[in-house]
Automatic annotation (TrEMBL):
It comes from Fundulus heteroclitus (Killifish). SUPFAM superfamilies: Immunoglobulin (SSF48726). Keywords: Cell membrane, Disulfide bond, Glycoprotein, Immunoglobulin domain, Membrane, Receptor, Signal, Transmembrane, Transmembrane helix. It comes from the Eukaryota. This is Ig-like domain-containing protein. It is a single-pass type I membrane protein. It is found in: Cell membrane. One of its GO terms (biological process) is immune response. InterPro entries: Ig-like_dom, Ig-like_dom_sf, Ig-like_fold, Ig_sub, Ig_V-set, T-cell_Activation_Regulation. Its main location: membrane.
Length: 156
């Protein structure tokens, strides 16, 4: 298990590993765990694969409810396929098939975005080339209230 902390967020990566006496070699992360505060402007859901994916590859991000979070196909985003909840809140990097960086930026995260997201690369509907999961936890802001001589916590 590899844990990286940067800025206000945390990323934990579970990966397959090969061990030899002198090196630890990480190959292909199986899943990521990302934690972010709800006051952040955006959060990056990481997903990388080999560079130079086929030009006809389809990249699809889905949530645990099987809603389409983001779809990239035929060289461009496909917003008409995207679930309304995510519309105008997601973006992917340019040249993603060439670089293999399929990471998704989700803007204005809230506690409702806490979910398991899956990045799926396919050729056609049935030929899945890769699947990777990202577990996202968006931490809400707690507000302490003093009411009638007692402290209460509520999401702010």
């Amino acid at each position: 298990m590899l844990h990286i902390q940067g800025g206000d967020g945390h990323v934990t990566i579970r990966a397959a590993a090969a061990v030899c006496p002198t090196h630890l070699v990480l190959c292909c992360p199986l899943e990521y765990h990302v934690v972010v505060d709800s006051e952040e402007e955006s959060v990056l859901l990481p997903c990388r694969t080999r560079p130079f994916l086929p030009g006809d590859a389809r990249v699809e991000w889905r949530d645990r409810g099987d809603r389409k979070v983001h779809v990239y196909e035929n060289g461009s985003d496909q917003p008409e396929e995207q679930d309304q909840f995510y519309r105008n809140r997601t973006k992917m990097k340019r040249n993603l098939l060439r670089t293999g960086d399929l990471s998704l930026t989700l803007e204005h995260p809230t506690d409702r975005d806490t979910d398991i997201y899956t990045c799926i690369v396919s050729r056609g509907k049935e030929n899945i080339l890769m699947k990777k999961e990202v577990h996202l936890k968006v931490k809400g802001q707690w507000l302490n209230l003093w009411v009638k001589g007692q402290w209460f916590k509520s999401l702010g």
